[in-house]
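Title: Comparing notes on inverse folding

I've been comparing how different people in this forum approach sequence design from structure. To keep things fair, I'm posting one structure and asking everyone to reply with a full sequence. Here's the target:
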């Protein structure tokens, strides 16, 4: 046997007799250990959060039981004030008394009016020897009429003063009711949170204790949690469920509007008090004048006016008579609201102690049950991390530079960040436009959202449509745009690839006020600058204009430059072709950068880029010349 064969045989024998080498852990085994470690860490974090929840529950429930008693004291004090107001209040006493004086004053005044008319008739019919006495009687009648007028004015002022005092008292009472209602609502929310937090803490803690992984932890033996028994929390929850509070307690806006209307009607008596005697005096004189056709017609007109004034006065008095009774009813409603709030608070005062005691016991049990589990999870996690580290080291020769955070399977590489273009504003991604659409709209913000870009068709003034050349240009533009799809037919899934033309008004009329609002709002008012007014003012073009932005105008800012197109610079017969060319250019190569937003080099229409300068020191207007000026040269 040769030496070579001998060596080969000895080597084979040694290999067979040698103990087998321990295989390196596979990537699958390494990943399994990593996932086991992550499960332990996730349970440990949940246990920490549950422990924090138990501490928060104990702290949050402190002082909760005492609050209903304090609020009940406030409710009782409010009840005492409202009851006192029912006994002696401007709403209950002064206003009804003022109404009685007002009604009596009106009756006395109208009687004095009639007495004065009778006195005048007596003067007119008196014989010579009776005339002096008739005159003195008439003087007395007019003195009484004047006194009645003054008494009525005073009664009306007293009525208004009583109503004002009543409204102030109602406002104070309603404010107290609203304060009590707000405090009661906040207490109810805390009580409801107590029931929900306790239930959630118990469920989470029990779920942690029942985890299959927790039952396999070395040295850990879960003990059944001794959760507190009783119906304290359930009774409180049911009580709260049956106490759904009204969205509006106390006095409502309609109540205050009715009181304001009552005040307005009382104020309206003053002009009627002046108008009615004037009309009746004139009618009385006209009735005694010579009978002519013109005079009779005049008297008839005066009679009709006087009758309407009398009807208005009577209607106003009836409204005041009815309205004077309503404030007392409002005061009664405040008292009923207080009683309802007090009943809710009393129920909370009855149910909260047992519920709070059960919540505190639940938190204490959770804090007792969780620490052994947390300790076992920390120990098992440390062992699992060590086992993973050893396996990782054996597989890869060294630990990852970031430790455990780098141990997970490597995620796909992140996209390489693209540096933004220079300038004060970030670039807007150029939309991939494939089509156009149009929309008539009647208020700013009504443009359909989600489209890739927006252009607005504008005029200097809607009155310019009276000019034949402007009307023809505008009609040509509308004809071109209305060949496209209407915006409402564009599906939401394709809107981002569609450029929307926004047309103020309707197909039959241009909304001039909306157009001016757009010019005012564009770029937060930049188009109102003096340098732009030269382009948009009466001495500039009459339009139509187009302004194009990468988003809706109401969403744009002063840092969002726009493209401005003045179609009034071109002959009428080229407008349609120029607009079609502009539309094609936007689809072929939409402007790429916000600060250097420019159309493709071969555009047919002269465009103006408008925006803030880079140092925000002013407005820049960059004219982008056409490449085909010879084909469509602007008019000088």
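Reply #1:
Here's my take.
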């Amino acid at each position: 046997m040769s030496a070579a064969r001998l060596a080969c045989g000895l080597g084979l024998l040694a290999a067979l007799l040698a103990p087998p080498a321990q295989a390196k852990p596979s990537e699958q085994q390494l990943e399994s250990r990593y996932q086991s470690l992550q499960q332990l860490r996730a349970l440990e974090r949940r246990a920490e959060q549950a422990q924090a929840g138990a501490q928060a529950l104990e702290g949050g429930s402190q002082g909760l039981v005492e609050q209903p008693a304090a609020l009940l004291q406030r409710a009782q004090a409010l009840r005492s004030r409202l009851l006192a107001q029912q006994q002696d209040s401007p709403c209950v006493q002064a206003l009804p008394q003022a109404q009685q004086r007002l009604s009596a004053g009106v009756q006395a005044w109208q009687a004095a009016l009639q007495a004065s008319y009778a006195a005048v008739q007596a003067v007119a019919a008196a014989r010579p020897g009776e005339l002096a006495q008739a005159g003195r009687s008439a003087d007395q009648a007019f003195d009484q009429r004047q006194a009645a007028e003054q008494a009525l004015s005073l009664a009306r002022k007293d009525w208004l003063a009583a109503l004002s005092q009543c409204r102030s008292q109602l406002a104070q009472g309603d404010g107290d009711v609203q304060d009590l209602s707000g405090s009661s609502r906040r207490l109810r929310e805390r009580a409801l949170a107590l029931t929900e937090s306790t239930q959630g803490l118990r469920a989470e803690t029990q779920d942690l204790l029942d985890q299959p992984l927790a039952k396999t932890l070395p040295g850990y033996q879960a003990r059944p949690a001794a959760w507190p028994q009783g119906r304290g929390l359930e009774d409180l929850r049911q009580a709260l469920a049956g106490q759904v509070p009204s969205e509006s307690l106390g006095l409502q806006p309609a109540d205050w509007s009715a009181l304001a209307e009552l005040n307005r009607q009382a104020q309206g008596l003053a002009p009627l008090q002046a108008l009615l005697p004037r009309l009746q005096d004139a009618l009385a004189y006209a009735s005694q004048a010579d009978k002519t056709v013109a005079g009779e017609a005049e008297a008839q007109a005066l009679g009709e006016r006087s009758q309407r004034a009398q009807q208005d006065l009577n209607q106003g008095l009836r409204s005041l008579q009815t309205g004077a009774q309503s404030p007392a009813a409002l005061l009664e409603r405040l008292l009923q609201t207080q009683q309802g709030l007090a009943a809710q608070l009393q129920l909370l005062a009855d149910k909260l102690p047992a519920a709070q005691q059960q919540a505190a016991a639940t938190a204490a049990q959770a804090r007792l049950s969780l620490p052994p589990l947390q300790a076992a999870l920390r120990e098992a996690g440390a062992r699992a991390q060590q086992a993973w580290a050893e396996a990782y080291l054996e597989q890869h020769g060294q630990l990852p530079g970031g430790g455990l955070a780098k141990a997970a399977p490597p995620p796909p590489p992140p996209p390489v960040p693209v540096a933004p273009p220079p300038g004060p504003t970030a670039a807007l991604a150029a939309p991939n436009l494939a089509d156009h659409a149009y929309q008539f709209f009647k208020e700013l913000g009504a443009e359909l959202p989600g489209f890739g870009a927006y252009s607005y068709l504008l005029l200097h003034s809607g009155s310019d449509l009276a000019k034949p050349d402007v009307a023809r240009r505008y009609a040509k533009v509308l004809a071109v745009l209305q060949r496209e799809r209407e915006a409402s037919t564009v599906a939401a899934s394709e809107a981002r690839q569609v450029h929307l033309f926004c047309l103020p008004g309707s197909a039959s009329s241009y909304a001039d006020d909306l157009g001016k609002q757009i010019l005012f709002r564009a770029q937060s008012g930049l188009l109102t600058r003096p340098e732009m007014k030269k382009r948009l003012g009466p001495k500039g073009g009459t339009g139509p204009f187009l302004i194009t932005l990468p988003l809706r105008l109401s969403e744009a800012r002063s840092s969002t430059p726009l493209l401005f197109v003045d179609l009034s610079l071109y002959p009428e017969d080229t407008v349609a072709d120029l607009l079609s060319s502009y539309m094609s250019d936007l689809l072929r190569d939409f402007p790429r950068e916000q600060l250097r937003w420019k159309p493709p080099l071969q555009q047919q229409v002269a465009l103006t880029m408008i925006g803030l300068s880079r140092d925000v020191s002013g407005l820049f207007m960059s004219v982008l010349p056409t490449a085909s000026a010879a084909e469509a040269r602007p008019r000088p």
